[in-house]
Amino acid sequence: MFLKKMKGGSKMYKKILATFVILIVVCMSFAWAAQDQSSSSSGSGIDNGNEDQIIGGDKDEHGCLIAGGYSWNQTEEKCVKEWEIGEARYQNQEQVQNRAQVQDGEHMGEGGQMFRIETQENSRIKLESNGVKAECDCNMTQEKDQNRTKLKVTMSNGKNAEIKVMPDTASEKALERLRLKVCSFENNCSIELKEVGKGENTQLAYELKTQRKAKFLGLFGSKMQVKAQIAAENGEVIKIDKPWWAFLASEPAEE
Hints:
Structural class: alpha+beta
Shape: elongated
Helix content: 25-40%
Largest sheet: 9 strands, mixed
Mean pLDDT: 77
């Protein structure tokens, strides 16, 4: 009787052991299958989401995805893969050949207006029209179309800004908004062509700075520093800047 019980217990133990071994083998088989499927998907380069998530999100100062092979193209003004597009496919070759550093001397703009360019010793460029001068510390180039000259400036954000408004026009509009008659050495007035704004909002503008006569509280004669910014591409007034206390002062019209 005792031997029969021992034999019966041994058979039960073997059944349990066999079942346990089978379960282990099945679990390992599922694990290997899942690992093979993951390796296969990774190796084939299947895109199951955004490309940025696969190759990483490192970008340059223009927002171009470096790991994706993108770089900033100044002509297209966007991120491109240069080796896929090709130089001849995205640039107008005639414009590229005609574009060069500005040349000193008299020029005629697209609208027929005359202006003069003079390169300074400190690499600054002086732009003059109708006796009004504006200096620019910028990367200025020119394009020739017969006897007309188009001026462009490459800005810090990689975009190209065209100078369609000359200094005399910008100065006239700025003085009108500031209620001044002239911009001269006597009233410490200066005009500069420069970048204003930041990032994607950066634009090329004429900035006129001068002293404005005022009467503080309507009684005390004073002078305040004021400035106006005029867009070089369309002549729009970007900004008028005055001291915080200007609202307490009256500004009589200049004689």
